[in-house]
């Protein structure tokens, strides 16, 4: 085998250029091409026009190419002249309708698919169409429509619909039926099409623990209540906090609303910033399990956090319409008076001192409490936001007006979470610890005014502690013991 370069033939294998693919002797060449190749070994009819540009061989190849193009142009039939073909005859009448029925096209333009045969003399129109003897329907109760309206729209007569609503109302209130309730309706045979079908059967889930069924008997519609057994064992979820308390509790099987209530109740006893990754959470949630397999989760019953040396255990306790959280001894949350806005290290008391930055002696009108940047600052008592914004050396500052001529101020915030005129509750987050204004580091400057004059915040009585006693305490401890006996109902988040 050989390769041809721009200069000469070069060998690429073990055979010579003369012997590869040809007879060895010139006398045995049988074709004109073979004879020309043997006589003119360097001659090519169509040379490479990309090499040896401008040589005699290149000009000969260019002339050959031009000649071939000219011959092709002369032999071409022409450009722009149409090629005539046979045109089919136009269809009309019955042929057109049959062809159109078999064609495919857009239905929006009136096309049809498939073939439709025209009616013959054997076709007779029906005087009446037969009906199904029984219709089984499914309807869904909507918002504000009412049960009677849903039944009428499903084909139930007004008399049967009114009778069904009256029977159901004797067992459950119409307001107890939740939107989205599925109704299984069975309509019977009617004598003529001019009257509505009679209601033969109506079945639906009225409550989580009750199903109702209406059936037609000899005396008319009759109601049959079907009680559903419910297991009220609570759901207990335990696990390790890890990188996120919320995500760990959700991964363990606790619903989102219960986790939010858990964190909210827990934050009244321990700062969330002090919850570590190795701490253990313990959550108990109200749960109802029907014998039919459905599960319904309710409110948070117990919130626990084990931090090793310190643990928090809170039990939900309802007193009328109020909800309180108590520890196992029946001691509740602080109420009334004022609470400290943050938990931190007291670095400066109320009184005269030399200012750490200004270097002169003046009255320090509040308390300085050191805490990490971003620590939530909570309202010391119920009140109205009198000011929220920048205030000179105080930096980001919030002032709250309270009853009894009291007012509190919170300075050096990194961020303000309330606006002027807003009403806040005791314990509500109003901002976050920072170091704005004239400050040596992240801390809260907390002031208290009584009738416009600055007073020592530590001189005002703090919140009182609520505690159960007597029969309430006995019932509380019994409930706590019962909840502590509940086994873990979901996989532990370790």
UniProtKB/TrEMBL annotation:
GO molecular function, one term: hydrolase activity
Domain named Csd3-like second N-terminal: residues: 235-349
Enzyme Commission identifier(s): 3.4.-.-
Protein name: M23 family metallopeptidase
Broad enzyme group: hydrolase
Entry-linked Pfam families: Csd3_N2, Peptidase_M23
Domain (M23ase beta-sheet core) ranges: 363-457
Main location: other
Cofactor: Zn(2+)
Domain of life: Bacteria
Keyword entries, A-Z: Hydrolase, Metal-binding, Metalloprotease, Protease, Signal, Zinc
Provenance organism: Sphingomonas molluscorum
Localization terms from the record: Cell envelope
């Amino acid at each position: 085998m050989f390769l041809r370069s721009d200069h000469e033939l070069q060998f690429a294998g073990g055979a010579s250029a003369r012997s590869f693919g040809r007879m060895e002797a010139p006398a045995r060449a049988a074709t004109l091409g073979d004879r020309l190749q043997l006589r003119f070994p360097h001659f090519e009819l169509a040379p490479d026009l990309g090499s040896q540009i401008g040589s005699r061989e290149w000009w000969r190849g260019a002339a050959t190419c031009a000649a071939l193009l000219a011959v092709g142009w002369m032999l071409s039939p022409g450009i722009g002249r149409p090629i005539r073909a046979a045109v089919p005859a136009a269809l009309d009448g019955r042929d057109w309708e049959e062809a159109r029925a078999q064609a495919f096209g857009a239905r929006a333009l009136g096309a049809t698919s498939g073939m439709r045969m025209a009616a013959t003399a054997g076709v007779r129109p029906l005087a009446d169409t037969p009906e199904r003897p029984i219709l089984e329907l499914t309807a869904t109760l909507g918002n504000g429509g009412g049960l009677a309206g849903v039944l009428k729209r499903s084909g139930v007569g007004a008399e049967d619909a009114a009778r069904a609503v009256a029977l159901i109302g004797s067992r459950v209130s119409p307001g107890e039926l939740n939107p989205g309730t599925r109704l299984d309706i069975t309509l019977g045979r009617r004598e003529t099409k001019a009257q509505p079908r009679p209601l033969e059967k109506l079945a639906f889930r009225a409550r989580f623990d009750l199903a109702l069924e209406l059936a037609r008997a000899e005396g008319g519609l009759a109601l049959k209540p079907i009680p559903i057994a419910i297991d009220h064992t609570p759901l207990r979820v335990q696990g390790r906090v890890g990188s996120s308390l919320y995500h760990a509790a959700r991964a363990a099987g606790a619903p989102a609303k219960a986790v939010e209530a858990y964190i909210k109740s827990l934050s009244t006893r321990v700062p969330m910033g002090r919850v570590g990754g190795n701490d253990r959470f313990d959550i108990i949630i109200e749960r109802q399990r029907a014998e039919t397999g459905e599960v319904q989760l309710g409110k948070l019953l117990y919130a626990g956090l084990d931090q090793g040396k310190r643990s928090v255990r809170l039990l939900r306790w309802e007193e009328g319409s109020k909800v309180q959280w108590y520890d196992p001894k029946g001691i509740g949350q602080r109420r009334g008076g004022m609470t400290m806005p943050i938990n931190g290290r007291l670095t400066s008391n109320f009184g005269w001192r030399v200012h750490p930055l200004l270097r002169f002696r003046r009255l320090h009108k509040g308390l300085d409490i050191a805490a990490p940047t971003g620590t939530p600052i909570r309202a010391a008592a119920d009140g109205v936001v009198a000011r929220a914004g920048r205030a000179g050396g105080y930096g980001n500052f919030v002032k709250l007006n309270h009853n009894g001529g009291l007012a509190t101020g919170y300075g050096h915030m990194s961020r303000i979470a309330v606006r002027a005129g807003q009403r806040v509750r005791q314990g509500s987050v109003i901002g976050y610890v920072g170091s704005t204004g004239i400050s040596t580091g992240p801390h809260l400057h907390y002031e208290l005014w009584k009738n416009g004059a600055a007073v020592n915040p530590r001189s005002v009585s703090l919140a009182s502690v609520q505690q159960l006693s007597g029969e309430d305490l006995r019932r509380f401890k019994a409930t706590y013991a019962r909840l502590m006996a509940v086994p873990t109902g979901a996989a532990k988040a370790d």
